[in-house]
Amino acid sequence: MNKHFILKFKIDSGIKVCFFFIACLILSMVLLLPFSAFHYKNLTQTSVLYLETELTNIKSSFIPFLDKTFTQKNCASFIREFRQKVFNEKIVKESGIFNQEDHVFCSTTQGDVSFNLFKSIRKRLNDSPTNTTLSYTKTAITGEKSVLLIFSKPEVGGISSLIPPQYLIDMVKTKLSPYDIDFKLAVIDRGLTQKKENREITQYSYQSDKYPLSVTAYLGLSYYLNFLLNYLWFGCLVAGVSTSLLVFYKHKKLSQSSLGFSLSNALDKHQLYINYQPIVENTDPNLGYKVVGCESLLRWKDPQLGNVPPDVFIPLAERSGLINDLTYFVLKEALNLLKTHKHTFKTLYISVNISRKVICRKDFIEKVNDIFKNEKQLLTQIVFEITENTECSEAELVVIKENLKAFSELGVKIAIDDFGTGYSGLDFIRKFPFHILKIDKVFVKNITDESSYAIPLIESIIQISNSLKTKIIVEGVENIAQVSTLNNLGIECIQGFHFYKPVPKKALVDILRRQKAINNPNE
Ligand code: C2E
Ligand code: CA
Ligand code: CA
Q1: First to last CA, the chain
Q2: 88-99, pLDDT tens digit by residue?
Q3: Beta bridge partners of 135
Q4: Is this model's pTM higher than 0.85 or not?
Q5: 3-state SS of 487-516?
Q6: Where along the chain do its domains lie?
Q7: d(CA 452, CA 471)
Q8: CATH superfamily of 27-244
Q9: How far apart are CA 51 and CA 168, in angstroms?
Q10: Which of 92, 124, 220, 363 has its CA 20 to 30 Å from the CA of residue 272?
Q11: Cβ(378)–Cβ(322) under 8 Å?
Q12: Torsion angle of C-alpha atoms 335, 337, 342, 347, degrees rounded to 10
């Protein structure tokens, strides 16, 4: 049944992911459509530029024949060379040279050819800054409509070359047809082609500024489909990235919520327990360090996940609000320990981490009073560890202040945990009544190194603590060198792996009993 449920869940989410992918793909393609304008405009312009380049190349390759010597009526002497030139040209079929009077006196056409340029052509040549123009007329030579590329050189004459229109059409085709763009190529507004169908969605014209020619592109449905197909990879990329992000986000949320779900059951399923880390003090140099209290540290052992570190589940509990119940659980356990082993704990304390979310609750004092209702005097053996930071509103700060004052009156000691790592620092400790400053382990790491920046910092914390008349506990002490450096600085209270790691309740009681037996052999 359960497997069936998981399989169905997986299929459902797979279908949803597919839908999301397709929706993203469609959306990105729709968003891409406006960019098609850049695409077809660019293609149309490119096709015109391609024609311009080809025509300009032809023109420059014929320029040498516009020499003064060729303008004399000596056609016979260079006609072979001229014909060879035309023969070598890809798209020029015939060519003729005209003189200053616009009379074509030498031509590659077989037989005698002698005619004058049209006046309209002369006018266009004169109007053109490069003395170049095109014409699209029925020529006497071929009897068909042809394109003429005509250019002249002042005081010499000019050359007129015949280009079959199909060549120019084919050039535009190579640029536009792969994209299913129907087009009209026009020379002096006379169309060399006609558009095939009347089903265009939009059209775009581009006029050459060097030659009297233009290309009009007609963009129909098939162009847009082709465009989208060409950029399908882009749509797939966008949809793929968005879907991956969605899956990643969902997975993270799911794993967080499932962790949160497991945590919410952990208390009822007795998967939570407490380890206690002894805190030692060196009050009498003859006796050495002795345990004066311990910190309660919550542990969660999930059957599937194994040991989940408090750095993971405490923030989760804070977000879900479960931290209140967890704190009450720790407080009840601490009370039971003190109650059950009254004698062993006589002068010792248990500190409990109180999250900011908990300490700023108005009903927290009631809850604590309720838990300790029959053992009020044991509250004097309780330390609340709270951290300094500024994540509170003004209203919350008022409640914190009231709570701390009330707890102090009940005999609870208040410690600032991880001192030196928060932001509010002095301002925070001046506002509230504290008894202990716990110096965070980051300051202890390399204090044996003489150049360590931490020593002056610890010294200044000692000064602050002296002026506020609070006690200091240094956390995270892992070796003897650190102990002796701290000892030289006058630090008496230490918590760290060098002395004790966090241990289960029973091991703690054994440690305390052994210590008692050594210190009071007659008891
Ligand atoms: P914390 O309050 O700063 O607790 C001290 C942490 O330092 C503990 O980590 C302890 O195991 C570790 N520690 C102690 N001595 C040494 C040492 O010599 N070297 C090193 N490297 N570490 C040392 P732990 O148990 O993993 O707890 C992590 C944090 O989880 C605690 O930091 C505390 O902020 C939070 N936490 C644990 N239990 C509770 C709880 O019941 N309530 C709340 N609100 N927070 C808790
Ligand atoms: Ca702590
Ligand atoms: Ca700490």
Answers
A1: 62
A2: 888 899 999 998
A3: 148
A4: no
A5: HHCCCCEEECCCCCCCEEHHHHHHHHHHHH
A6: 27-244, 275-297+321-503
A7: 23
A8: PAS domain (3.30.450.20)
A9: 7
A10: 363
A11: no
A12: -80
Collapsing DSSP states into helix, strand and coil, what is residue 489? coil
Which residues' Cβ are closer than 6 Å to ligand 1? 277, 297-298, 309-311, 314, 330, 353, 355, 385, 417-418, 441, 475-478, 495-497, 502
What is the number of alpha carbons within 13 Å of residue 247 lying toward its C-beta?
16
Over residues 345-388, the pLDDT tens digits come to 999 999 999 998 999 999 999 999 999 999 999 999 999 999 87
Domain 275-297+321-503 bears CATH identifier 3.20.20.450: yes
Centroid of ligand 1 to alpha carbon of 266 (angstroms): 19
The partner residues of 95 in beta bridges, in order of sequence, read 161
For the chain, give me the number of helices (H) and strands (E)?
17, 20
Distance CA 402, CA 432 (A): 9
Instruction: Judge whether 27-244 and 275-297+321-503 match in fold.
Output: no
Candidate from 273, 294, 297, 327 with most ligand 1 atoms within 8 A of CB, to mutate: 297
- The crossing angle, in degrees rounded to 10, of helices 394-410 and 364-371 is 20
Residue for token digits 């838990």?
371
Q: What is the pLDDT of residue 155?
A: 82
Q: What is the pLDDT of residue 2?
A: 38
